[in-house]
Here is the input.
Amino acid sequence: MISVGLFADGRSNYAGAWNGVPGSVTGLFYGDPGQLVAQLIGVATLLGFVFTFSFVLNAILEVVWGHRVTKEVELEGLDIPEMGALGYPEFVMRTESVTG
Here is the structure.
């Protein structure tokens, strides 16, 4: 999105006479800093909306279901609970005592 505000050269009809913009637009490198400002406002609006919406949705999901597995399952690994098989069957976990 920001590239249009920088590199639009006026040869293509990016705006299509939509939103009150007649004809082609030019970016910062072709003499119109206003287009870059418009693109930055659009990016900021999208980021603000997406961040807020995602944060609220994740907060609701955390309350309803939760995001994490139990500590026991996390320590054992998720291969068997999620896939039904070990991901690395040749890897054997064992506890070794360190004697000094």
DSSP finds four helices and no strands in the chain. The mean pLDDT is 84.
